[in-house]
Amino acid sequence: xxxxxxxxxxxxxxxxxxxxxxxxxxxxxxxxxxxxxxxxxxxxxxxxxxxxxxxxxxxxxxxxxxxxxxxxxxxxxxxxxxxxxxxxxxxxxxxxxxxxxxxxxxxxxxxxxxxxxxxxxxxxxxxxxxxxxxxxxxxxxxxxxxxxxxxxxxxxxxxxxxxxxxxxxxxxxxxxxxxxxxxxxxxxxxxxxxxxxxxxxxxxxxxxxxxxxxxxxxxxxxxxxxxxxxxxxxxxxxxxxxxxxxxxxxxxxxxxxxxxxxxxxxxxxxxxxxxxxxxxxxxxxxxxxxxxxxxxxxxxxxxxxxxxxxxxxxxxxxxxxxxxxxxxxxxxxxxxxxxxxxxxxxxxxxxxxxxxxxxxxxxxxxxxxxxxxxxxxxxxxxxxxxxxxxxxxxxxxxxxxxxxxxxxxxxxxxxxxxxxxxxxxxxxxxxxxxxxxxxxxxxxxxxxxxxxxxxxxxxxxxxxxxxxxxxxxxxxxxxxxxxxxxxxxxxxxxxxxxxxxxxxxxxx
Length: 508
Hints:
Helix content: 40-55%
Strand order of the largest sheet: 1-2-3-5-4-6-7-8-9-10
Shape: globular
Largest sheet: 10 strands, mixed
Oligomer: single chain
């Protein structure tokens, strides 16, 4: 702090010179312009769908010092099926930490045939993710312990009211995670924010040869799109923001609100389970409250009596069992696996399938290695908005979340605790993004979305000057390509023909 003050005083009293910053600004602008002169050298991919093409390009680590260290961004293209392509459709699956590079392999599933005929589907790994200079914090064993929650200390595992010993472990684990990031990637962790990702994406837009961006972002990918509209409104052609985040909220607030979304999704899962002949949570005569109560009691018991796991030596404690159940709440496609896992766990004490579901949710491979999505998720979340530095704020948030969502709420609130220790110089202010001057931006919300509550879609559509809301009345995370023909046709018409439906349109 003192050294900085001395340097500042020296600069202020130096000999007369050109107006402050003139040469530096010009030089920085020239350096940034050079990034637009790159070429994407498309070639064969090392993995992925047949016919895809891959390339890399460079972006500055720090846009305020573009002449410094660079980051290499990996990009993949699934070429258009038709002969009269309109350009590129850039896609992102969310996360933070999801791989857009891998997402592009699934173009036949993530967009319709009509869209694939008109666009090259292009995905990139955001900075610090996957193949793009990945951020590494903990090693695999450390991530196992981190995701395994508070264990082996005095307490009952109830995250709504943690013991002193449990609180100490939560603080040590969170601080240790941040310290590991600082040890392994001290510069990169300071520049992981979504505003930088949007700037990286604008460089990509130019290299693809598109004057304006056409984009499909899901979940956290909506925040990338909203940031793009904020910074480059005149370069927006069409943005589909599906399963929206509310950029005006801080990470702790988002975590508490997200708990309500998971509560709604959990009740839908339990209702479906109870209507089936072999539901481990009860029978046809039981209410949804009865089924949720049975699940809650089972999870509480795992704190004292962990489940067995035939894959490895990890005990399936309460935290890991909750993660396995949480997997069901992202998509109805996983409901059968979770029912099967709960049947084995509640009947025989076998938590193997719940452990597999938790591993799938957090991208843990067969070799016990993780993708770096956990590190990227925490880094981006902690960088994008300020978080409380007082641990009591997290305890209060956990208690608040427990009132609405007692099963998952407290753990989600405590999950934001690493942000209390994130370097303050890396944190952006919370702000509404209005994208003033952008062409119409589509926000898609699903009424019973688990991970991104419908209220967030309403909020983002309201914040964006040109935002309009398209609603899917249904379950699951996101709306497009989820089996609703009305949603799919409306999104397709917007992407291809720029057809804008009435704001507030609902597809049931």
